[in-house]
UniProtKB/TrEMBL annotation, chain A:
Pathway per the UniProt entry: Amino-acid biosynthesis; L-tryptophan biosynthesis; L-tryptophan from chorismate: step 5/5
Origin organism lineage: Bacteria, Pseudomonadati, Bacteroidota, Flavobacteriia, Flavobacteriales
Keyword Amino-acid biosynthesis: yes
Species of the source: Arenibacter troitsensis
Protein's name according to its UniProt entry: Tryptophan synthase alpha chain
Gene from which the chain derives: trpA
Active site: E45 (proton acceptor), D56 (proton acceptor)
Function comment: The alpha subunit is responsible for the aldol cleavage of indoleglycerol phosphate to indole and glyceraldehyde 3-phosphate.
GO CC terms of this entry: cytosol
From TrEMBL, chain B:
Protein name: Tryptophan synthase beta chain
InterPro entries in the cross-refs: Trp_synth_b_CS (IPR006653), Trp_synth_beta (IPR006654), Trp_synth_beta/beta-like (IPR023026), TrpB-like_PALP (IPR001926), TrpB-like_PALP_sf (IPR036052)
Record organism: Arenibacter troitsensis
N6-(pyridoxal phosphate)lysine found at: K89
Encoding gene, per UniProt annotation: trpB
Assembly behavior: Tetramer of two alpha and two beta chains.
Length: 254, 393
């Protein structure tokens, strides 16, 4: 059993944090991960920066651009993470776009993830059918959970299909938006959260996009198993640097 | 060998739809509908009527006598520069706006580099009374002021893309983000033969009117439908796709795609994707693209804003890989000189994109009896500033 599965079995709401590797500074990666765990975060998405992140809003794109300027590469990220399992035990997921993975070599990428102790991947532009046809066996060989997204526009039939193909959790995008582009949840989201809860999927759902404080975290996790915060954390790092990560986490989970 | 798209959306190993789930419902709906809608008699009738009465088709196939004499071969020009709005782009935007209406969409978004596709989109939106938002790189807005003004006169809102390199690829990213944020009422009119399936095929089909006309026009002039060669410039590749389409499976027709070498293929300032590119994923499709070894997409360069794209459409990647098409890279200087030659010999000032195609006449020798059809994809009015600066006119 992978760390993601273990974590999801715990009787608590999951707080997951996304950050872009190589931001604010090139070598902040390990410190950010350690501090997040120390402060009670349950799971971390490590963002592999990409030049053209088309599902992301301005905040994450700007952090990716800066990270690439700082010199972040796939090989360097793996180098930075090689001893991470000596100090960190919560689930770690690499989130990025498919092209850098494809150029690195999908099998080589997965193999090195396993060696480091990465538990899963989120690649929003790797579609379900391509994954199943070409890459599922490789991901599974290296014990990696692949996480798919659903949105309010995703049909019930497709949600069922994604649920069947998933073995971990489903990343539930809270609204029709790119990352970091909204403020609070309204009736549409409530209806959507209930609709998904009523589907009684086999995989737990973790909500992402639009969660930026304790209120939205509570709202998002009323029905879902957990929530992911990305842009709000990147903004915090931009303003406060990497020394006060505890303050951010405490602000979410009061 | 099949050069058309297969049922899964691929041209050989290229193509597909590598899109985030947020775009899936729209792209999937389009995939299921586009061929059905294009085959509807009412769609065909409206499309043909608008191409005839509004765009001014058929565009002439013109025998360029003086150019033919200079290069000692039979040169024909397909005059897409005479279309309304001044380029081939409008063939696609007419098709897609009719598609959008039938899909029940009320809001149109588009990306543009030099502004030609933006103008063609704003034009059809004005025609149909639809809301139009065009994303354009901040840098391109500054260097293409007349086209920005045209779009505004036509009622479109031009939104600057301020992210990344602030040019065409970033404008495309911004348009895709807009579509993610507005999935219900919006249709995205992509301007080139790129993007997730079915876009490359749909755009190619709308542009294929170019080669359809060449066939019957050449029959009238030369007594045969097939030329010895068809030649087109290629950035993303929509004019090339339209020029090649009906000749892809005609073995005796040579296909030549002309890329922008910029300051030279090895100069670091180039857009010659077939030489410099590697298989990867850009804007939702698997194709040849210019990128770092780490898979980050790099910024191309060409004097011509319309060829300044880091990838080529998946159909063209397949034509390159299989050897069906010959790819030639032409530098800024060669293209500018060719533009001048055409102006002086034929009285036609071409778009700098199109000038790239003609530039091969200097180096690629054809036989005197061979018929070579060049797609003159656009007129040079928009490039006057660049011509003025380059030739100190």
């Amino acid at each position: 059993m992978n760390r993601i599965h273990q974590k999801l079995q715990e009787d608590k709401k999951i707080l997951s944090i996304y950050f872009t590797a190589g931001y604010p500074s090139l070598n902040d990666t390990v410190k950010i991960i350690q501090d997040l765990e120390k402060n009670g975060v349950d799971m971390i998405e490590i963002g592999l920066p990409f030049s053209d992140p088309l599902a992301d809003g301005p905040t994450i794109q700007a952090s990716s651009t800066q990270a690439l300027k700082n010199g972040m590469t796939t090989a360097l990220l793996f180098q930075q993470l090689k001893d991470i399992r000596k100090s960190v035990s919560i689930p770690l997921i690499v989130m990025g776009y498919f092209n850098p993975v494809l150029q690195y070599g999908v099998e080589k990428f997965c193999k090195e993830c396993q060696e480091i102790g990465i538990d899963g991947l989120i690649l929003p532009d790797l579609p379900l059918d391509v994954y199943q046809e070409n890459y599922e066996t490789i991901f599974k060989k290296y014990g990696l959970v692949n996480v798919f997204l659903i949105t309010p526009q995703t049909s019930d039939a497709r949600i069922r299909q994604i649920d069947t193909a998933s073995d971990g959790f489903i990343y539930m995008v809270s609204s029709a938006s790119v990352t970091g582009s909204q403020d609070g949840f309204g009736n549409n989201q409530e209806t959507y959260f209930e609709r998904i809860a009523d589907m009684k999927l086999k995989n737990p759902q973790v909500v992402g996009f639009g969660i930026n404080n304790s209120e939205t975290f509570l709202q998002a996790t009323k029905q879902a198993k957990g929530a992911i915060i990305g842009s709000a954390f990147i903004k915090f790092l931009t303003q406060h640097g990497v020394d006060k990560i505890g303050d951010f986490v405490k602000g979410i989970r009061k | 060998m099949n050069y058309n798209v297969d049922e899964k959306g691929y041209y050989g190993e290229f193509g597909g739809a590598f899109i985030p789930e947020m775009l899936y419902p729209n792209v999937e709906n389009l995939r299921q509908q586009y061929l059905k809608i294009m085959a509807e008699p009412s769609f065909k009738k409206e499309f043909d009527q608008l191409l005839k009465d509004y765009v001014g088709r058929p565009s002439p196939l013109y025998f360029a006598k003086r150019l033919s004499e200079k290069y000692n071969t039979k040169v024909y020009l397909k005059r897409e520069d005479l279309n309304h709005t001044g380029a081939h782009k409008v063939n696609n935007t007419i098709g897609q706006i009719l598609m959008a209406k039938r899909l029940g969409k009320s809001r149109i978004i588009a990306e543009t580099g030099a502004g030609q596709h933006g103008v063609a989109t704003a034009t059809v939106c004005a025609l149909m009374g639809m809301e139009c938002i065009v994303y354009m790189g901040e840098i391109d807005i500054a260097r293409q002021a007349p086209n920005v003004a045209r779009m505004k006169m036509l009622g479109a809102e031009v939104r600057p893309a301020k992210s990344g390199s602030r040019t065409l690829k970033d404008a495309t990213n911004e348009a895709i983000r807009d579509w993610i944020n507005n999935p219900v009422d919006t249709h995205y009119i992509i301007g080139s033969a790129i993007g997730p399936h079915p876009y490359p095929d749909m755009v190619t089909r709308f542009q294929s009117i170019i080669s359809e006309e060449i066939k019957w026009q050449l029959k009238e002039k030369e007594g045969r439908e097939n030329p010895d060669y068809v030649v087109a410039c290629i950035g993303g590749g929509s004019n090339a796709a339209g020029t090649f389409y009906h000749f892809l499976h005609e073995k005796e027709v040579g296909i030549i795609a002309v890329e922008a070498a910029g300051l030279g293929v090895d100069s670091g300032e180039s857009a010659a994707t077939s030489v410099l590119g590697k298989m990867g994923i850009i804007h939702g499709c698997k194709t040849l693209l210019m990128q770092t070894t780490d898979g980050q997409i790099t910024e191309p360069y060409s004097i011509s804003a319309g060829l300044d794209y880091p990838g080529v459409g998946p159909m063209h990647a397949h034509l390159y890989k299989t050897g069906r098409a010959e790819f030639i890279a032409v530098t800024d200087d060669e293209a500018m000189q060719a533009g001048m030659v055409l102006s002086k010999l034929e009285g036609i000032i071409p778009a700098i994109e199109s000038s790239h195609a003609f530039a091969i006449l200097e180096t690629r020798k054809f036989q005197p009896e061979e018929v070579v059809v060049f797609n003159l994809s656009g007129r040079g009015d928009k490039d006057l500033d660049t011509y003025i600066k380059y030739f100190k006119l």
